[in-house]
Amino acid sequence: MTSRPVRLAVRALILNKDRLLLVNAWPGEQSDLWCAPGGGAEPGTSLPENLIREVAEEIGLQVTVGAPVLVNEFHDPPRGFHQVDVYFRCQVANPHINPGWRDPEGVVNRHRWVSRTELEGLTVKPDSLAAVAWGDDGGDRATITYDPLELILR
Questions:
Q1: Considering Cα of 106, then 110, then 111, then 114, what sign does the dihedral take?
Q2: Phi/psi zone of residue 142: left (φ > 0), alpha (ψ -120 to 50 degrees), beta?
Q3: Are strands 7-16 and 145-151 parallel, antiparallel or unpaired?
Q4: For residue 11, which of 22, 19, 1 has the smallest C-alpha distance?
Q5: What are the 10-residue block averages of pLDDT along the chain, 154 residues in total?
Q6: What is the dihedral of CA 124, 122, 23, 143, to 10 degrees?
Q7: pTM of this prediction?
Q8: Domains of the chain
Q9: Residues 19, 113, 38, 97: what is their CA dihedral angle, to the nearest 10 degrees?
Q10: From the CA atom positions of the chain, what is the Rg in Å?
Q11: What Cα–Cα distance (Å) separates residue 129 from each residue in 67, 74, 94, 96?
């Protein structure tokens, strides 16, 4: 196992009409894993600024970043990969995603708005995504959830 620095990333929880925005971020549709939009944080830029940039790049939406609600860790021991994601509640003024939009880096290849019922039938990470997105914490949206280290999925 090679050891690399821990990667820091940011993710957006965007609900519109009780539907959560998800992306598939495996180039060439290599996986059926869905996640919240976002990506790696660049040094010298705040986490919200990184998230605004990442969402704009991946799906072409402009977001307003709210409070952080989840810290999730995952890793891939054989590769020595370890990532910490910070999830933020976000709002969009216009939820329409241009059907012709393409991620300039070619990572995000699909997106979809899903209901909670639809989410249950998908392969998603982190495991706590639905509970955090739909506020299963009893309505206290000021609470931050910590999701301990999970193995990476492909």
A1: negative
A2: alpha
A3: unpaired
A4: 22
A5: 84 97 80 92 94 96 95 89 94 93 88 96 93 75 68 72
A6: -50
A7: 0.87
A8: 7-151 (3.90.79.10)
A9: -120
A10: 15
A11: 16, 13, 23, 22
